[in-house]
Amino acid sequence: MRRWTPWACWGWLIGVVVFAVLFWWLADAHWTATLILYGPRWPLLLPVPVLLVAAAVVDRRLLVPVLLGVLVVLGPVMGGRTGWRTLFGVPEGTPLRIVTFNMRGGQNPRWQEVVPRLAGLNPDLILIQECVETIGDPGLLPVGWAFRRDTNLCLLSREPVGVVESLDVIRTQEDGMSGLVVAYPVPLADGQVLVGHVHLETPRRGIERFRWGGEVAGMSRNILMRDAGSQRVSRWLMDARAPAGIIAGDFNMPVESRIFRRHWSGCINAFSRRGRRFGYTRVLPKWSARIDHVLVCDRRWKVARVFIGPDLGSDHLPVVADLILARHPGALPVPP
Length: 336
Fold this sequence. Notes:
Strand content: 15-25%
Structural class: alpha+beta
Radius of gyration: 22 Å
Helix content: 25-40%
Strand order of the largest sheet: 3-4-2-1-16-15
Largest sheet: 6 strands, mixed
């Protein structure tokens, strides 16, 4: 035990560090790492109890590599956040609370609760994916709120939005779609901000083909489709003529995805900036992931607070973000 415990403790630390590096490098670049990306990562912690007991018995200094390995798994691998930036204040300015939620369409048995419960969070904007048209019934809408539905994307806002633009969807019979996206010019007290609402292609098509038929080619095609879709949607939203200041919705990708980092890293992820714990938004019995995001692409907007909303009958949870359009000397004016 004295001979092998040091090897086990340091070997486990080296192993999880190598795993984290390869995971971030290959996730959504190679199908093997993609399976891990959309699967449970907590099994990496299974050796920890045995290693802690062995280290405590043999040499307590060996607790150091074990605890460092735990931090690597909880942080870079599982996506845990400390929210340390919340210790600092945020600048004064125009506040905007935005909620994004995939309600799971007509499969949600509690669909009638969705709008009243989300409105109870006191947001300025509510973005809903897989939205059913019936949630726009006058009896469910908050008094004075505007509602619109574009394909399966819905917007609820305190003020009517202006001319809405959308990007045509490219679909293939087997590999899914390029992604749904709508751009809303949202009025503010002294201007407006362009908000992008997205619902990108799911990796489930590729994973299910591998799971039930062992089809690797299907996973590879799904990765290519999602990569091309993200590129197309992000370029359209960040068009120099009218770039989106805020983008939110169901990206169907966690931040560790290479596709996500390639096409969306130019924006600040609200939960990554000021969220706490894991922030999982897709919750399943055996694993969970953070695939719904609020992104800030105009640096005049600052993230004040972000948290995960209540269970509303979907397999997703809402993301609630408090944003501030900062006011400070030399700040650029809000575009009209």
